[in-house]
Every structure is written in C-alpha cells, then in structure tokens.
Amino acid sequence: MLRPYGSTWKFGVRNQRPVICRQSRMGEETAARIEAATLRPGGVLCYVKWRMQQPDFEKRGGLVTVVTQDADSGEVLMVAYMNREAWEKTLNTGRACYYSTSRKQLWIKGETSGNVQDVKEIRVDCDADAVLLKVHQRGGAACHEGYRSCFFRTADQSGWRVVAERVVDPEKLYGKK
Domain span at residue 115? Predict the structure, then answer.
C-alpha cells in the first residue's frame, strides 16, 4: 500500500525502464525500478512491486541495526533495531517503528511519549544489514531519558559528563519508575 506522508508518487521512465518516483515536500525525488504494476480502470494504482535494496533480516537473526538521524542537522538521535514487521510498518506509515529487544515486541516511536519521528529518507547500507533513517523529531526528545539525542554523554579522563540539556522530564512522559 502506498500511503506517502508529505509526498506524492508518480510513474516515470528512466534509462528506458519504468520507475515509480517519490517527490518529497522538499522537492527531492527518489526512484525505484518497477517489476510489476496493476492499474484499475481510470489509471488508479492498486498494486505495485518494485525492486529496491531491502535489509537482509536473515543475516543477523531477524534484526538489522538502525541509526536514526535528524534530517536537517545530521545529528544522530538514537540507535535501535528493526525486524521485518517494523520495516514494513515504517514504510507504510512514514513514521519510525522499531523492534524492542528488551520487551521483544514492536515499538512505534512516540506511541507512549508523543515524541514521534516522521521519516524523511531511508537508506540501506552496502551489506544490507544496517538502516539509516533521516527523520523530523516531533516532541523534542528522541531519548527516553528526556534528551534530544540518546548520545548526551561524553567520556574524558575524569569519566562521563552530560553535555546536553534535558528537553523534557521523562516522568511526565512515562511516569515514575
């Protein structure tokens, strides 16, 4: 199902091959080669299968590593995991969805906290075992400890130091632990 958030899809031809193109709000265009497409009368798309690099979920026991980055600043917000179900939910909704290894279940980012991540770009690495999500972080905090990024500490000779400001009190989002 194609349900783009903030983008439009169109068919085209590149290098004499049919492609489906995604035009984002920012005017960027990405394309994937179409393997098969079915149109209803009137040209309404009802099925499309395209060839695109997908993560290799079998390589590491059903999970791939996901690095999540702010789409505007490039700041790394968090690192998590995806299984195939989380990957498909992310593609279908345009919102980041992960697999929680501690809870052993799907984790829709922002479902509890309201700190939703709207996906603007997805990349798969050359080995197909890692994903990069470029997102717009809504709600300010990507980290469950209330920081914009999970990488809010640095290590130096004297030990660990917090180098970022907490943007939200985690107890207000999740309650007392």
Answer: 64-170
